[in-house]
Amino acid sequence: MCAALAAPAQAQQPGAAIDVLDYRFELELSDQSDEIEGRAAIAFRVLRPVAEVEFDLDDPVGGGMVVSSVTLAGQALRFRQQDDRLLVSLDREAAVGERRRIEVCYSGVPADGFTIGRNRHGERTFFADNWPNRAHHWLPVVDHPSDKATVAFVVVAPAHYQVVATGAFVEAVDLGGGMRRTEWRSRAPVATKVMAVGVARFVRQRQALIDGVPVETWVYPQDREVGLRAFAPGPRVLGAFERRFGDYPYAKLANVQTTTRWGGLENAGNVFYDEDAVDREGGIETLIAHEIAHQWFGDAVTESDWPHVWLSEGFATYLTACYLEWTYGRERFLEQMDRARTRVLSYAEEAPYSVIVPASVPDPRRLLSPNVYQKAAWVLHMLRGAVGDGTFWKGMRTYYERFRDRNASTADFAAVMEEVSGRRLDWFFDQWLRQPGVPEFEVAWRFDEATSAVNLTVRQTGRTIYRLPLDVEAVLGDGRVVRGRVDVAGERTAASLPVPARAEELRIDPDRWLLMRYAVEEE
């Protein structure tokens, strides 16, 4: 753990000039205005010789943040704001490997990313909502998942509010005059998309201590009973994933009722949920499982760039189904995966040329589709079927351990799975992640009395020709079942399954390992 934390986050954007190591955001909030006063201390390491560095920040044109000063060791630096960038001229050209720490003072009314308004009870609230790249609307940052950094939030706000933020609680100090200063600090590096702070009237309750990690709920006072009940599964979910993957990566797990635009947002160490989710009939255990799974995959191990967001959303979707299996049995798992299949097949008709990992992404929000959620979950399920249960879970754990607090790409995940399985898997990842559609089969079969075998032909009719193992079961007249496997490759595959008696039925994929559309016909 210590070695992982000591390693600097690796900036992987091509041509990046700096790697941010740490942010310290000091924010002053008030009830008289929506304007925030901010001071950001940014420590960074230089990746290539540079005399000017830039950060993402809304420029003042049409609103946005107005920077009043930028300093380095107390010395004023020249800066300009342009096209939602803050460009800072250093005192001299910095060499590769140098570390600098600048302070930016600014103010303004956030256009996005930090929502100041009223909750469902009409009370004033302040909530970060950074995903995917909206932190720059209110914070000077490198607003890309590849640049992870440690972070502190220091918030001065009216004392009738409570403050929750990324990291561990440091202190709360009453300043007099009805104001309080609260600090939280994360020693684990996180991406800006999952850095967060929430300021509201809360009831805070510790549910449990799981292996030293406090699991808490933060809900509006008016929703105390329903909120505490809705978030009750939190400790059980965290324990289930920790047993499977290893240590939970953050100082706490706070499940927080908020005004987020998302159903749930997997902020590192403090998940933000839509405020009305607590009223959901039947509870929100699956939503909780999805967001907590993200703490390992998406937060601790973060996609290196937006085309690889399936490493976050697909993982959380599949692990939610796995959690239901571990907790409630196989049928709950299959129900979840069957619903996912339905979504995928429907979306394949709506967007027949879309893929899970596109070559580029102009707007990361446009990635949010059944491709990166449900289809990616099925990719993981099929990978598990291909390499075997034990190997799959070993690979998942190895992937987490190797890339914890860092970034990973699809190639990184594939390399881990090839390593632990001892098999070439490039064909698997290419066809499922970079090719459109799903397998479409027509299966024709007949019983051959002369050879006492089921002869079958699998014809692929979709736009992508897949390679996959297809399990089949021949049901005999006396009720016995004979199982076989057909290695499907190419547009047409013929196979023969020996059976001891006449077959009356042929079942395809009886254990439901494959994502496909098919029709079966007896000749």
Description:
The termini are far apart. The N terminus is likely disordered. Helix 7 packs across helix 8. The chain is α+β, with helices and mostly antiparallel strands and 523 residues long. The longest helix is centred in the middle third of the chain and has 21 residues. It is elongated, with a radius of gyration of 26 Å.
Largest sheet: 8 strands, mixed
- Provide the residue-averaged pLDDT: 95
Structural class per helix/strand content? alpha+beta
Helix content: 10-25%
Distance between the termini: 61 Å
Tell me what portion of residues adopts beta-strand conformation. Answer: 35-45%
Number of strands: 29
Question: What attributes characterize this protein structure?
Answer:
alpha+beta; disordered N terminus; 5-stranded mixed β-sheet; 10 helices; 523 residues
What are the SSEs and their pairings?
Elements: H1 2-6, E1 18-28, E2 36-46, E3 50-56, E4 64-72, E5 75-76, E6 79-82, E7 85-94, E8 99-109, E9 114-118, E10 124-128, E11 149-158, E12 162-165, E13 168-176, E14 179-190, E15 197-200, E16 203-210, E17 213-219, H2 224-230, H3 234-245, E18 253-258, E19 264-265, E20 270-274, H4 285-296, E21 301-303, H5 310-328, H6 330-350, H7 371-387, H8 389-403, E22 406-408, H9 410-421, H10 426-433, E23 440-448, E24 453-460, E25 468-476, E26 481-488, E27 492-498, E28 503-508, E29 517-522
Parallel strand pairs: 1-11, 17-18, 18-20, 21-22, 23-29
Antiparallel strand pairs: 1-2, 2-8, 3-7, 4-5, 4-8, 6-7, 9-10, 10-15, 11-14, 12-15, 13-14, 16-17, 19-20, 23-24, 24-27, 25-26, 25-28
Helix pairs in contact: 3-4, 4-5, 5-6, 5-7, 6-7, 7-8, 8-9
